[in-house]
């Protein structure tokens, strides 16, 4: 397990669990079996009816209806999809920001290839292949348990549930949600993301960056074209495109600290129609990923400059479209410790394992530009299962016992947070 040099893992910064954390039996907010069964059925319903970003109308209605059945008052976001719901009331004179629990609710435009799952997607070329149905169900379940505690007078401080649309759509629905005021009154925010490399019953956690920045790059190169017998009389556009592909990543890598992990990777190159014709146009597209927040902020200028230099060297005109994606998710130490403490309170300190920074992107990072928070990796692998069911694959599936784990970690975090922050 790797982490940033000098950055302590949550296990090294957390308080001694035996001394400071109540035993599971003493901490309220566990998930009743009947509600757990209902949540599994809710997750399966979402899984069967996946909706793409900004189209999650059925999903939003299902969440809203269940929260209203619990006596709560959810508010749908102005876009018509996604919602927030506050639970509990603030004590007189309490000016502290509330804790928010965030879930993303959208699906992916890929087919569900699980042949033996009765809850496989019923929508062609749509699938919950990134676990957002689990994230949604986990936050919903936590909200229902916390609402029950609030009715009993056992919820010390209010908690906000945030169901966010369009995580999979760059630059992510989080930015629009923030403009819609979802962070007003929030002092800390927590989330989970399914991890098929971690066993159900466990979470992966780290202090500092846990995901990477991810942007999209589109390039058009143009020249006069000509005969392949006379490349010296025109712009050899195929060679120019090839040099952009090979030289730009190397050039960019030499203009930032190597530890930043700034990487340009190409996914598409298209040019030409005949073997003896130098084309007039070429197109390239790829991604820009970065482990470091400061380097990510420099990336557009660095990459623009490198592309222009290489293109000019071969006489090609370049048009660059740089599409900002998301910055890295950088876990706040205190928020990561809260998740560690909550999970240890429910299932013991051994249920928390260190995790590495991934090269995937997550728009939860936009919230952390405004308030401190942390994301944990929720283990969803069936213990002992030899089959790999990775994210963004049509056969992705989870051990549904992870839903209880996520719910009870969130409820513990809400109760512990109430007494932790001044």
What do these coordinates show?
With 422 residues, the protein is α/β, with parallel strands linked by helices. The protein has helices at 10-13, 17-20, 33-48, 57-69, 132-151, 173-179, 237-253, 293-313, 333-347, 365-368, 401-420; strands spanning 75-76, 83-87, 98-104, 159-164, 186-199, 203-205, 208-209, 213-222, 226-227, 263-271, 277-278, 281-290, 317-326, 330-331, 352-354, 373-381. It has an eight-stranded mixed beta sheet with strand order 1-2-4-3-5-16-6-15, sandwiched between helices. A four-stranded antiparallel beta sheet has the order 10-12-8-13, covered by helices on one side. Strands 7-14 form a two-stranded antiparallel sheet. The protein is elongated and about 85 Å long. The two termini are 33 Å apart. Residues 1-25 have low confidence and may be disordered.
Strand order of the largest sheet: 1-2-4-3-5-16-6-15
Q: What oligomeric state do these chains adopt?
A: single chain
Largest sheet: 8 strands, mixed
Percent strand: 15-25%
What is the helix content? 25-40%
Number of helices: 11
H and E string: HHHHEEEHEHEEEEEHEEEHEEHEHEH
- The backbone outline, from C-alpha atoms, is elongated
The residue ranges in which pLDDT falls below 50 over 5 or more consecutive positions are 1-25
Strand tally is 16
Average residue-wise pLDDT: 92
Structural category is alpha/beta
Rg from C-alpha positions? Answer: 24 Å
Question: Termini, distance in Å?
Answer: 33 Å
């Amino acid at each position: 397990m790797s982490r940033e040099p000098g950055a302590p893992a949550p296990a090294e910064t957390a308080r001694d669990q035996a001394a400071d954390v109540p035993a599971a039996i003493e901490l309220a907010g566990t998930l009743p079996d009947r509600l757990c069964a209902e949540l599994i059925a809710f997750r399966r319903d979402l899984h069967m009816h996946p909706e793409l970003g900004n189209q999650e109308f059925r999903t939003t209605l299902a969440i809203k209806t269940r929260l209203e059945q619990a006596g709560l008052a959810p508010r749908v976001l102005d876009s018509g999809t996604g919602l927030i719901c506050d639970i509990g009331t603030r004590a007189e004179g309490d000016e502290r920001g509330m804790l928010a629990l965030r879930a993303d609710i959208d699906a992916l435009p890929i087919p569900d290839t699980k042949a033996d799952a009765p809850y496989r997607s019923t929508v062609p070329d749509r699938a919950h292949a990134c676990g957002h149905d689990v994230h949604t169900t986990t936050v919903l379940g936590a909200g229902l348990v916390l609402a029950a505690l609030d009715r009993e007078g056992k919820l010390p401080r209010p908690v906000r549930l945030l169901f966010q649309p369009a995580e999979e759509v760059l630059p992510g629905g989080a930015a629009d949600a923030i403009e819609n005021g979802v962070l007003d009154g929030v002092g800390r925010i927590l989330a989970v993301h399914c991890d098929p490399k971690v066993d159900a019953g466990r979470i992966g956690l780290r202090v500092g960056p846990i995901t990477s920045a991810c942007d999209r790059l589109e390039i058009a190169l143009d020249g006069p074209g000509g005969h392949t017998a006379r490349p010296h009389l025109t712009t050899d556009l195929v060679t120019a495109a090839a040099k952009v592909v090979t030289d730009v990543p190397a050039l960019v890598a030499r203009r930032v600290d190597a530890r930043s992990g700034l990487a340009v990777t190409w996914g598409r190159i298209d040019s030409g129609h005949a073997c003896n014709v130098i084309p007039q146009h070429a197109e390239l597209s790829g991604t820009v990923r970065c482990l470091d927040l400061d380097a990510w902020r420099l990336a557009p200028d660095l990459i623009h400059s490198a592309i222009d230099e290489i293109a000019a060297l071969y006489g090609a005109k370049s048009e660059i479209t740089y599409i900002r994606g998301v910055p890295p998710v950088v876990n706040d130490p205190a928020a990561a410790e809260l998740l560690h403490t909550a999970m240890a309170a429910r299932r013991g300190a051994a249920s928390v394992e260190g995790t590495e920074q991934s090269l995937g992107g997550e728009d939860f990072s936009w919230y952390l530009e405004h308030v401190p928070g942390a994301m944990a990796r929720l283990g969803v692998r069936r213990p002992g299962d030899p089959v790999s069911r990775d994210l963004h694959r049509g056969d992705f599936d989870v051990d549904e016992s992870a839903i209880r784990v996520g719910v009870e970690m969130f409820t513990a975090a809400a109760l512990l947070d109430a007494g932790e922050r001044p």
